[in-house]
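Example 288.
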Amino acid sequence: MTAQTIDGIALSRQIRSEVGLRAAALTAQGRKPGLAVILVGDDPASAVYVRNKVKACEEHGLHSVLEKYDAALAESALLARIAALNADPTIHGILVQMPLPRHIDPQKVIAAIATDKDVDGFSVHSAGALMTGLPGLRPATPYGCMKLIESTGVPIKGRHAVVIGRSNTVGKPMALLLLQAHATVTVCHSATPDLAVHTRAADIVVAAVGRRNTLTAAMVKPGAIVIDVGMNRNDEGRLCGDVDYAGVREVAGWITPVPGGVGPMTITMLLVNTLQAAGATTRAGTAG
Ligand code: GUN
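Predicted structure in complex with guanine:
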């Protein structure tokens, strides 16, 4: 069997076109959705990510502000900027790009963002809302993974899902979103003794560890849905995921490519979250 590709670029385009319509409708009501993105330091990868986030806002009719600060910015100064943005009625979402310089405590920064502007969904409040099934802003990457899984049309309810990785930003919220969709969920991580035992039993595998070839063909159940969150470089310097794509696509039923799978969905769901924070309800944004 050769897997069907789950096209994150096409799905993104579809959701983003709805984002554009909703943003225009909100703007017409005098409530143009606004996102503030803060970058501290000069990490080149982070600079690319924030530029892409701001560009996506501009392309879809959202207001955006990019604030760049020197790596030496004091933590207190950053907290003061966040307080000002919390009070700014033109800003509905605040994103502080991670990682931050070592002298700044990311937990303090995340906690400083107003709950209703936490478009990353990283705060204790947002995590608690997800945990308890209350409405709230969901972390963009796992939220995008859910949309990719849903796009296959395969019901999630009753399926066995295996999440590889337990980060606060992807693995843990991914497991909770799958649980909320009534999957039976197993979370595997670096201390799991025999990963293949779990993945071979999975109807859905989400790989989010940051190590290439973590999931190979022999570890996958025929017909499974495989979502690859990884962003790594292979020996030739080309972008690759955590999944051995060439091998696994011969066994799986559905698979996301890297690039062109999860990556484009992350920014798309950030836009959806910003709309939600601005008071919109979108088809994509009501799945909570
Ligand atoms: N750094 C890498 N990914 C992300 C993200 O989704 N949000 C933030 N704030 N920082 C990041």
